[in-house]
Specification:
The protein is α/β, with parallel strands linked by helices. The chain is about 50% helix and about 20% strand.
């Protein structure tokens, strides 16, 4: 290795190429030799197995006939196979039947009879055993023995050739590598020679010759560039030496100028520092810098005045302990050391302090750590502000806010009390008027009482508007977020306004555009309030024509949607210059309308405020004597149908493909009915009058496809619905059709007349889809059955029917008028009523007898409704029973219902008492009473 290290680069490359070639050729020869041996052995095994199979097949007959001669002849034929040294044929007993030996010098066959077929290979040769079968039985066996003499001879021959090839390759490689290595080493040797000359002579003008573009050529080029650089540097150094004196003089002048510039900069900096100092000193805030030991390094005038010294310079190097009492100074010191140790600033921290007169003050302070260039904390910088006056002002504002909140609470309590005090007598006025109107009266008496009822209703509307507006102004309105069905809400809202619309002869319509999600999440009560206000206004200012409510989808993003509601009418309209002011409080489009139509002017203001609270907008379009359109938008969230209804009803399969004739003089109503029926996959035909309906029926009858269902309006110009049905009944060909009557409002004698004419359903407008579908389905079912079937009347109440059972009701009410009203309403419905004037009397009555229901006034003398309810619920804990208690109260503010339910009551009725709401409560507990009665009657039967 030492020789190799000291050898020239040419010799090193030659030796490396030579050794690499020898090793590579040797490995290749060894690989070929191994491959030849393996191939020869595999070929030998294949040949011997073929011979064994062939000889075995031929020898089977010889063994079966015991013909040794033919068997020996078969084995002697192996002499042509030079690789087979010996072969033995055994009979089935394992005795030698015939044998063959290539050399006569081989002794007796050393092999034994084969028990199974196998091939064995060892270092000396190969043995193949073959079992011979005849007729499915073993007839004998055959064994061949072969040596590897031919393989060894072939191997020696291969080695001789490989050695010769290796020798020739080595010589060729040595000669070739010597020539090629010279081409590589000559440029390197030349470069080494040039480097030696440059080093010895220090002559940097010598250059090496570039003989190629390979890495060596690049090395030579880089070497020449380095020599050029050194040469240029020497020249530059020489030039620098020549111009050194001139440069020293020039540099001296530059330094003088630099000194002048620095003087001016320091002067400017001093001016800036003076200005900054003046600014800091005149800032009213406390500004200071301290070192790690909380000693002052810098402070402004405000700090000096606060600490009672004449100049900030007097604070330098001192601590707070020299100016403040120890408890204050220790607090400041601890805060500063915490900032220094943690490296975390304290921002806007309130802490106590002392002013220059020794009075306790409040300081808002910020302290941040100061760091050196290595990031180590070396002190703090602080800024403080005396906020004593600010805290005093905040305390005064807090007291003012509490006073305002107290005033707001007092206002709310006043509104609640006013609501109670006004609603209580108004309950008697409205209730007693309703009772009087149900008695036999003269026409003049009825007109007087109806005027009283209308005035009381108007007064109640005014009270509700003022209370709502007051709650909105006071910020007491809270929005709910619950799931509800938009179609049900719209239809129910319009249903409550149907009677008012019918009294004026106005058609009331509702339409939900396709694509509007019917199941949404929001505040249904506030949406209903806005709709009631707008629809009520539209009916009030419309003497003929229609009032329509349309809902469409404004936009939909994910589950958030914006719905647009439009309430249009054909009324008196609004002047264009008044459209912007109608939503202001106490403003109407024309002051004269107040005298003619009444109203507080708060309805639209309440609508605008509620719409804004629900993230929407409201506006109006109108033309005088042409009608108005009020638009408003609201934000809602779409709801999966499964979140409200477990099994949402689909299209009724029994109605699919049914031919329907719709007869209505109102175009909008016809369009709504058409869309609804098509949604149920029915086939509607529209007619605008009774005459047109008869023509359509005659045409379809002649075509062989008569109408299966007829939906007709009861009130139409010319031939109304009843006249149309009478004309149909006179024509036998039209008698098979099922007829459903659509009425604007119920009139006395309408139901008997419908039954007389064979009308199967009698539905009020506006029509709810669920009611229409149920009525159509039931009417079609009654047509298929025989006998007299009852009339299907939508939204009708059988007030005159005797109840299945009556309720024992305890009424707790202190107002005599309300006592009489409630007793009369309940007794007219067949119930037994016991009246008490306060909670104590109610508890005493409950101790004496049992009741099915308690109607409990909330505000009563001696013991109010809440206390009485609590006492009842306490007693029930011992007997395990629960008596239904329904609040009957004039408290109708936001949260009163929840307050009653939280006190243990089961229901809530507000005054003035509405008969419809009372009926709903009574029906609920009447149904429970009937169920309990049925269960008690079934017990003996089971026994």
């Amino acid at each position: 290795m030492r020789f190799f290290r000291n050898a020239s680069i040419q010799n090193k490359l030659t030796i490396a190429v030579f050794l690499t070639s020898v090793i590579g050729l040797s490995l290749a020869g060894m690989g070929f030799e191994f491959y030849e041996k393996a191939s020869y052995r595999n070929s030998l095994v294949s040949d011997l197995e073929v011979h064994a199979t062939t000889i075995g097949s031929d020898a089977a007959a010889s063994l079966a006939l015991h013909d040794r001669g033919s068997a020996q002849a078969l084995l002697d034929s192996m002499r042509f196979e030079r690789q087979i040294m010996e072969a033995c044929l055994y009979d089935k007993r394992g005795n030698i039947f015939a044998e063959y030996r290539r050399s006569s010098g081989i002794a007796e066959c050393p092999m034994t009879a084969a028990l199974h077929e196998e091939t064995r290979i060892d270092a000396k040769g190969m043995t193949i055993s073959k079992v011979i079968s005849s007729g499915g039985e073993i007839a004998g066996s055959l064994v061949f023995l072969s040596d590897f003499s031919q393989l060894e001879a072939k191997t020696w021959k291969f080695r001789e050739v490989a050695a010769l090839v290796l020798l020739v390759s080595i010589l060729t490689t040595a000669f070739t590598s010597y020539r090629l290595v010279r081409l590589i080493t000559e440029p390197i040797l030349q470069l080494a020679e040039v480097a030696e000359k440059v080093s010895s002579k220090e002559d940097y003008t010598i250059r090496a010759y570039v003989l190629g573009d390979d890495e060596v050529g690049k090395l030579v080029g880089s070497f020449n560039q380095m020599l050029e650089g050194i040469q240029e540097r020497d020249a530059a150094l020489q030039a620098a030496r020549d111009h050194l004196e001139a440069r020293v003089e020039e540099r001296t002048r530059e330094l003088e100028n630099e000194v002048v510039r620095r003087g001016k900069a320091e002067e400017a900096l001093s001016i800036q520092r003076g200005r900054l100092r003046a600014l800091i000193d005149n800032v009213p805030d406390f500004m200071y810098v301290k070192d790690a030991d909380s000693r002052f390094l810098l402070a402004n005038v405000s700090v000096a005045k606060q600490m009672g010294v004449n100049s900030p310079d007097e604070l330098f190097g001192k601590t707070d302990f020299e100016f403040y009492p120890r408890e204050f100074a220790q607090t400041f010191f601890n805060d500063e050391q915490r900032v220094i140790l943690t490296g975390q600033p304290e921002v806007n921290r309130e802490e106590p302090g002392l002013d220059r007169y020794g009075n306790v003050s409040q300081v808002l302070t910020t302290k941040v750590p100061l760091r050196d260039k290595n990031g180590q904390v070396i002190g703090i910088a602080g800024v403080g502000r005396d906020i004593t006056a600010l805290k005093r002002a905040q305390e005064e504002m807090r007291k003012a806010r509490e006073a305002a909140e107290a005033a707001s609470r007092a206002k709310s309590e006043f509104l609640a009390n006013m609501s109670h005090e006004i609603r209580t007598p108004l309950n008697g006025v409205i209730g007693m008027t309703d009772l009087a109107l149900e008695t036999n009266l003269t026409q003049e008496q009825r007109e007087y009482l109806e005027t009283v009822k209308m005035s009381a209703d108007s007064l109640l509307t005014v009270i509700n508007d003022i209370l709502d507006f007051s709650k909105i102004e006071a910020g007491k309105i809270d929005l709910e977020a619950i799931n509800f069905d938009l179609r049900d809400l719209l239809e129910f809202t319009l249903k409550t306004m149907a009677v008012r619309a019918d009294e004026k002869g106005v058609e009331l319509l509702g339409d939900i555009a396709p694509g509007v999600p019917e199941l949404i999440r929001g505040d249904p009560s506030r949406l209903r309030q806005v709709l009631l206000n707008l629809v009520g206004n539209a009916i009030k200012f419309t003497d003929q024509g229609e009032v329509a409510v349309k809902v469409c989808l404004e936009c939909l993003e994910g589950r958030d949607c914006v719905l647009r509601f439009t309430v249009s009418d054909t009324g008196i309209g609004i002047p264009e210059d008044k459209l912007d002011s109608i939503f202001a409080p106490f403003i109407q489009a024309d002051s004269s309308t107040t005298r003619k139509y009444g109203g507080t002017g708060l309805g639209l203001t309440i609508c605008a405020r509620l719409v804004a609270m629900m993230g929407g907008a409201i506006w109006a379009e109108s033309k005088v004597e042409k009608g108005s359109q009020f638009h408003f938008t609201m934000h809602f969230e779409t709801v999966n149908p499964g979140e409200i209804k477990e099994d949402p009803p689909g299209e009724p399969a029994g109605l699919r493909g049914m031919r329907v004739l719709v007869v209505d003089d109102n175009q909008t109503n016809r369009r709504i009915l058409e869309e609804t029926l098509k949604h149920w996959q029915m086939v509607p035909t529209l007619a605008a009058s009774g005459e047109e309906a008869l023509r359509e029926m005659s045409f379809t009858m002649s075509s062989g496809k008569p109408f299966q269902l007829i939906l007709t309006d009861s009130h139409m110009p010319g031939m109304d619905g009843f006249a149309l049905i009478e004309a149909m009944r006179k024509m036998p060909e039209f008698s098979a059709a099922t007829i459903a009557m659509l009425k604007s409002a119920g009139h006395k004698g309408d139901a008997p007349r419908c039954e007389e004419l064979g009308v199967k359903a009698y539905l009020p407008k506006p029509i709810r889809q669920s009611e229409l579908r149920a009525a159509i389905t039931q009417a079609l079912e009654t047509t298929k059955q025989t006998g007299n079937m009852p009339l299907v009347a939508g939204n009708s109440r059988q007030n005159l029917t005797a109840p299945l059972t009556s309720l024992r009701i305890l009424l707790a009410e202190d107002n005599l008028v309300n006592q009489q009203l409630a007793m009369r309403l309940l007794e007219k419905r067949g119930h037994h009523v016991v009246v008490t004037a306060n909670g104590q009397e109610a508890l005493a009555a409950l101790d004496k007898s049992t009741f099915d229901l308690v109607l409990m006034d909330v505000q009563m003398p001696e013991m109010d409704g809440f206390e009485a309810t609590a006492a009842i619920r306490q007693k029930e804990k011992t007997n395990g029973q629960r008596l239904p208690i329904v609040a009957l109260t004039a408290h109708a503010m936001k949260g009163d219902r929840e307050k009653c339910l939280a006190a243990g009551m089961d229901g809530y009725l507000s005054k003035p008492l509405r008969p419809q709401e009372l009926d709903e409560v009574l029906d609920l507990y009447l149904a429970r009473s009937v169920e309990d009665l049925n269960q008690s009657e079934e017990v003996p039967t089971r026994e």
